Amino acid sequence: MRQNMWRASLILGTCFGHCAFGMNGQQVTMHNHAVAPAEKIQAIESAIRERQYDDAEGLASAALRMDPNDARLWTLEGIAYSLSGRDQDALAAFGKALKISPTNGAALRGEVQLYYKSRDRRATPLLEEILKTNPADSTAREMLAVLEARAGECEAADSQFALLGTAINTHPESLEAYGNCLVQAGHADQAVPIFQRLADLLPTAVYPRYDLAVVLVESRQDEAAIKVLDPLMAEDPSDPDVLSLASDAYEAVGNTPKSVALLRQAIILSPMDTGYYTSFAALCLDHESYQVGIDMIHAGLQRVPDDPSLYLSLGLLYAQLAKYDEAEAAFKMAGQLDAKQSISSYALDLTEIQKNHSEETIANIRDQLKTHPNSALLHYLFAKLIVGQGTDAGSKLSGEALQSALLAVKIKPDMTEARDLLAIMYTDRNQFEPAMEQCRLALQSNPDDQTAIYHLILGLRHSQKPQDRAEAATLVQRLSQLQKVGRQKETNRKKFTLVEEQPTPQAKSN
Amino acid sequence: MACLHTTAHRILVVAAWLMLSTAPLLAQTPLESQTEKPQEGAQPAANGGSSTAGVFAPELDAHHLPITQGGTVKSGPIVYQDMAAKAGLTKWHHVMGTPNKQYILESIGSGVGLLDYDNDGWLDIYLVNGSTQAAVDGKAMPPHAALFHNNHDGTFTDVTEKAGVGNDRWGFGVAVGDYDNDGWPDLYVTNFGKNRLYHNNHDGTFTDVAEKAGVALGNWSTGATWGDYDGDGRLDLFVPGYVHYDLKSQMSDTDALPLSFCSYRGVRTYCGPRGLPGESDHLFHNNGDGTFTDVSERAGVNDKAGYYGLSSVFIDVNDDGRLDLLVANDSTPNYLYINKGDGTFEDQSYASGYALNKDGRETASMGIAVGDYRNNGRIDIFNTTFSDDYKVLYRNDGDANFTDVSDDTHIADITIPFLGWGTAFLDYDNDGWKDLLEVNGHVYRGADTYNWGTSWAERPLLFHNIEGKRLEPVAAVEGTGLAEAMASRGMAVGDLFNDGRMDAVVNNMDSVPALLVDVDANKNHWVAFKLVGGPKSPRDAIGATLWLTANGMRQRADVFSGGSFASTSDMRPHFGLGPATKVDALEVHWPSGAMEQFAVPQIDRIVTLTEGQGRPVTPTKP
To answer: Chain-wide mean pLDDT for chain B?
Structure first.
């Protein structure tokens, strides 16, 4: 049942006895249209109340033949169609009613309801119209929020959900949409209470608790996530998604053995899911256990031989061992398997640079940018290479690098690496104001970006303003604290390396 | 050729996160994957126990040797020749632990001190030695440090036994300073275990007074520095601590537990320093009566964070006439303490830009070179770091603001495969621009087994200063000192033969030392100065700054103890004059605050300057 829709009786209620009235109850001027006799209206309404929808449709059709410009009759016909499941006919009927009487509340709601049911975006302007007239219509607002969430307009959806407050507390679909939108907007921490409510509302369902665990992990509340995930795993130890998520949480709290065991189990349960192999590779990178990661990726490739992400992972692992020929081969294969992705080109460029072929790489990137002009990564890499060459800040090439870095952040405003690079480039030019601006923008995307904090401090140190000096002092404390925390985390993380303890899953011969 | 190793790996780290970050999706509504969003902050993961920039492809020379070992040329100008054997230095052998280097304690190595212990006007050499587990357990004779007396003829004589400075402990560093202002240089030797303060008895012998003086400490001390931080005319002592180490619970490269801090490029190595507890730093105030008081905490330099200190130097970086303090920390941020003039220091490490490199990343700093390489009157800093990382040149922009200019000076890429230790600015060709020398050597024996593009023994790197704009590598000509691959650690530079040439003594791990004699063919002129401070300055004038004008340039040089890696170089400031045959002006800023001008009637010699004998000048900020 969808709680965030008007109940049929509510729509009917706006019509029964009031079909001559607009949404606000104001009298609708209908003197230009013929008016059906009241007894006809009452008869149709009776049939609808008694769920005699065929009768109601018949009565309405007959009455409309006599009074085709009576919006009430079209509305009642639409309601009858709607309740009997003839949505298209219902929409046609509501449409005619609204053509005759554009502010007919019952017709408007009926039409919106149908559009909403079919996830049709045409509901949106209608809902906005309803809300314009009646901002307190929480049902309309909730429907609008859900529609916006479904359309990926999370900022708008979140605003609507926020206005609804506790009104959605018993509506699972809305809670879920709100939670998802908060996550997409990067507010996983704010999504925690939303998914907690959803989980409370549907205590026997698995997905709300899983989602809750996801946002807990995302918001680094790993202990809390484990408390959610442990019972889930006890209930069903064969859900690889739950196992994989639990692996993340256990890794975050420093229990690497458990993390590895869970991820291995996820791979065994779902050996065709390449995501688990790449997760394992990431774990191996973290723990500098590159060969173990390579072995696991090879096991994955035996089962899913044409997956580009596995080859990308393989390339990265080989690169960590400085086996650049193998890395390059893997990146090339990834590129062949998914030529649309600029990331393979990017990875290939990196291996070339690592092999000291930087000049060729710059030329390559120029070519690649023709194919992938909107690749923020390639623009960033291009700029970074030129900066790394020690190019004179006043040179044409350096100017080109600056433009490339600016393009990278234009394409991808949250690309903190590119913003950090811009900060370095501006600092090299003694342009501390734009450098600091880039640092601040980087920090908006990632408040823990130590490079940005560092360069912001350096910029502020060049300022003569007392408040800037004070801010620098505060940032020094923050950076120092971040580094301390980072070191502690690293110490915890690096207590373990991964070793081969059990065979990786073998491919079955088909 | 621009290699851009750093750049590439820096980006590769981002790529790793881009490609392998598999954030779980919500159950019901798949989120759009954020393919191009970096998922991690600015800090790439450390490689094993040390901070590096990542992993780089091996760069091999034509003979398939790693560039750290090979990369030599058949002919070219010869700048340095190793004359250690001829000089008699190779009778002594450095020993530290076992050759396999199973433990971090065995791998760090030891420093060198240059001092004129007998005041005969010629530099002598003190070489610190390590030790072995068997010696510590009393089951074998301990290796001993060596004091080599300069015979004034290119040879040296081992006078250790007579001098009584054999140390016989697990030694790391040496700092030279006349702490009692008696005109005779004393030695502070740092150890794993108790340190030594060898007081010079003026008769060719020394007496260890560390316990009585209160500066013995007891765990793992490294590259100390002397300096009069409070302006009372007496040298104080700063001693960095490395790892708080326990021989009974060492983590070796063969222990069963697979710790990530015990690996390099996925290969098992000894553990640390990351993952091990840091040893705190100590500042000892000289009480003037032969004793010292530990004022570390009050002064704000006690290293509360427990960083892994390896080298330090007192030097005035903001030109306020007070000695500031630099500490090179391994795999943790470096310290820059600004002297507030009230007996305390302000930690300006991050704010100054010295704590981290350009990427905002902490480095595995080993050694420090300080010097004004641009001849603009400001002290710049160079730090040596681990292999797989560039070595960092910090340009002093004034007011204790430092900028990493390693890329701009073209020094970054070439240094990446090398694991750097001792380092110094020195004008090897006397052209008036300070060049840069760095000695190298790996800590992992596996460097020769695996294809890491580096090697256990590495050749030194000498960079020629091109008018303060660029540091250009000097070719390593086969058969010369610059082509000699060594497992180097400590290095001290100085004019050993009073000929105006800047030589270098290198202490090599588990090997014999090198004596790199400056044989560059230039005909440039030079002048050097022996400073005598007092009564309000330390007698050896540590902390003095000299400003010399000649050949259309104004150069700066400072008198300091410590720096490099756990070593002390020649404390006599040396200036190359190029073709100039006279010094136009010389100004000395003494530690006492006095400023004097001296006439330098003759060049190509070492001139003694005594505080109070110059012409006083009105203090103006340079």
So the answer is: 90
- Any bridge partners for residue B338, and if so which? B346
Query: Domains plus CATH for chain A?
Result: 1-118 (1.25.40.10), 357-462 (1.25.40.10)
- How far is it, in rounded angstroms, from Cα B112 to Cα B115? 10
pLDDT at residue A22 tops 50 = no
**Residues of A with Cβ-Cβ distance to B23 under 8 angstroms:** 218
Interchain contact A359–B (C-beta under 8 A): yes
Determine contact, residues A57/A141, Cβ cutoff 8 Å.
Answer: no
Residue B247 per-residue DSSP state: G
Chain A CA closest to residue B274: A491
For the record, the structure tokens of B169 come out as 């402990």
CA distances from A160 to A140, A194, A202, A300 (A): 10, 14, 23, 44
Give whole-number Cα distances, B121 to A459, B116, B545, B600, in Å: 48, 6, 21, 19
B377 shares contact with chain A (CB less than 8 Å): no
SS3 A344: helix
Q: Are the C-beta atoms of B397 and B380 separated by less than 8 Å? A: no
DSSP three-state, residue A72:
helix
Residue A312 touches chain B, beta carbons under 8 Å: yes
Enter the tokens of residue B186: 């004393």
The answer to whether residues B198 and B208 touch, using CB atoms and an 8 Å cutoff, is yes
Q: Looking at the DSSP assignment, which residues form a beta bridge with residue B464?
A: B472
Q: What is the model's pTM?
A: 0.76
The shortest CB-CB distance from B19 to any of A313, A487, A496 is to: A313
- Are B320 and B574 in contact by the 8 Å Cβ rule? The answer is no
Answer whether the bond into residue B273 is a cis peptide, omega within 30°: yes
Identify the DSSP state of B479. Answer: T
ipTM here:
0.77
Task: Give, for A404, the enclosing helix (H) or strand (E).
Answer: helix A396-411
Does residue B231 or residue A133 have the better pLDDT?
B231
Enumerate residues 51 to 90 of chain B having a beta carbon within 8 A of any beta carbon in chain A.
55-59
* Tokens representing residue B46 in the block: 């450390």
Whether residue B39 is predicted with pLDDT greater than 50 in this model: the reply is no
A243 touches chain B (CB under 8 A): no
Confidence of residue A344 (pLDDT cuts 50, 70, 90): low
Report the distance separating Cα A62 and Cα A44, nearest Å. 10
Q: How many CB atoms lie within 10 A of CB A509?
A: 4
Tell me the count of A-B CB pairs closer than 8 A.
246
Distance to chain A for B287, nearest Cα, Å: 34
